[in-house]
Amino acid sequence: MWIFTRYGFYSVVCARQGQGRLDEPINADQMMIRARSRGHLGQLINRFPAELGDCEIRSFANADYPFRIFVAKTTWSHLLMQLNDEISYDNFKSAAAAQQGRAGFDYQDALHQVWAIMAKMSD
């Protein structure tokens, strides 16, 4: 699942068992929240300190998503509900810009690019 939030962009998938090598089976009860920006994971952890405060941001050099945290699937479900409940805006890109501030200009620009690409898919 790809998810764009005010705090950043994440790719969320099941973690793998064992050492996490590609040849190992998935662990359907453990989620791997991946990001291309360490700061995006940091913002998510800061937003949910009770649930994610003990998570270590692990680095995986040369990976397409080099920064990752690992959480139980039940924790991820709980976070998604909280993210949903805090939606109090009528324009996502503007809300993300307000959350990110000047430091998040690249993220804001990427959101506009994704919006434009997806707009081409309109029926």
Question: What does this protein look like?
Answer:
Strands 1-2-3-5-4 form a 5-stranded antiparallel beta sheet. The relative contact order is 0.15. With 123 residues, the protein is an alpha+beta fold. It has 5 helices and 5 strands, in the order E-E-E-H-H-E-E-H-H-H. Helix 4 runs antiparallel to helix 5. The protein has helices at residues 38-47, 49-52, 73-85, 92-100, 105-119, and strands at residues 2-5, 8-16, 26-35, 58-59, 67-72. The model has no long low-confidence stretch (mean pLDDT 92).
How widely separated are the two ends? Answer: 23 Å
Task: Report the mean per-residue pLDDT as an integer.
Answer: 92
Low-confidence runs = none
Q: How much β-strand is present in the residues? A: 25-35%
Q: Order of SSEs, N→C?
A: EEEHHEEHHH
Characterize the overall form: globular
| Topology, number of strands | 5
Q: Widest sheet: strand order?
A: 1-2-3-5-4
> Which range best describes the helical content: under 10%, 10-25%, 25-40%, 40-55%, 55-70% or over 70%?
40-55%
- This entry's quaternary arrangement is single chain
**Helix/sheet category:** alpha+beta
